[in-house]
Amino acid sequence: MIYLFDVPAFFIIFRETLECTLILSVLLGYIDKMIPMENRELKQSLRKRIWIGVCIGIILSLVIGAIFIGVFYAVANSRTKSEEIWSK
Asked: How far, in Å, CA of 69 to CA of 75, rounded?
């Protein structure tokens, strides 16, 4: 049977997501408090940069995760083949 849900991994990802949300809310709140309303363009520019950074971080983590999964299955596949050769 294939297990698609792992409880410890779920809680680790959930905790990291909460930490990311906390950091993001602190950054956005800091921009709102420190930059006066007269500098709307600066405020929007900084918010845009924060969200671009968030998007880049998500994309990079997905790419790195895909690379790790690909390497894991490539190594596991080659290990299985080598075990078959040496067990004969």
From this structure: 10
**Burial of 54 by CB count in 10 Å (0-12 exposed, 13-18 middle, 19+ buried)?**
middle
**Cα 66 to Cα 84: distance, rounded to the nearest angstrom:** 27
The full set of domain ranges for the chain reads 7-86
Contact 31, 43 (CB under 8 A): yes
Q: Model confidence over 7-57: pLDDT tens digits? A: 888 899 999 999 999 999 999 999 999 998 889 999 999 999 999 999 999
Amino acid letter, residue 27: L
- Token pair belonging to 79: 């290990």
Supply the DSSP symbol for 46.
Answer: H
Q: Report helix, strand or coil for 38.
A: coil
Question: Residue type at 60?
Answer: L
